[in-house]
Design the sequence.
């Protein structure tokens, strides 16, 4: 496995995702452990984009999402299915983009520095929902359909393995 990610010298998010995706694919391909792969996916996304917080909440099948591998400041450990942006994404099984977290009813502020976020649900190979990817930014309106397309693609690659 390569020791470092190759990242083009650009701030263009599409170009960065295009460079990153085959590297994430290569990183997770030889590894079967779900936590190890989620840990490296969160690290790769943080390294490529320097997002404020990148991580996973995993379904405990008892009504809660529990903090999984992440990169960034400490975070809330448990989120009920019906709470916050993560709970909303999990319950609806849809990606949610929140341009301004203050304007999202029920948003859970793990950090007051978080200004916008995107939450992408992920599934196992039997299409059962297993948790969500949460990416937070300290900038307002930092996520677009570009992030949705590529983050869903990354979680799709991961889904094939679990
Ligand atoms: N903002 C999320 C909670 C998780 S953290 O911000 C890391 C939410 O409203 O679901």
Sequence:
């Amino acid at each position: 496995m390569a020791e470092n990610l190759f990242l083009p010298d650009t701030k263009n998010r599409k170009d960065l995702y295009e460079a990153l995706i085959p590297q994430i694919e290569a990183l997770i391909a030889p590894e079967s452990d779900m936590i190890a792969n989620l840990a490296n996916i969160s690290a790769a996304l943080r390294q490529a984009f320097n997002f404020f917080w990148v991580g996973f909440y995993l379904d405990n099948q008892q009504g809660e999402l529990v903090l999984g591998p992440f990169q960034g400041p400490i975070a809330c450990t448990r989120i009920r299915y019906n709470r916050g942006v993560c709970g909303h994404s999990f319950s609806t099984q849809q990606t949610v983009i929140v341009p301004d977290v203050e304007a999202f009813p029920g948003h859970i502020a793990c950090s007051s520095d978080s200004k916008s976020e995107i939450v992408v649900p992920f599934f196992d190979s039997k299409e059962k929902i297993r948790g969500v990817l949460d990416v937070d930014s300290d900038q307002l309106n930092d996520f677009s359909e570009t992030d949705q397309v590529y983050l869903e693609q990354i979680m799709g690659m991961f889904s094939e393995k679990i």
Notes: Residues 53, 75-76, 79, 84-86, 107-108, 110, 114, 117, 134, 136 surround methionine sulfoxide (CB under 6 Å).
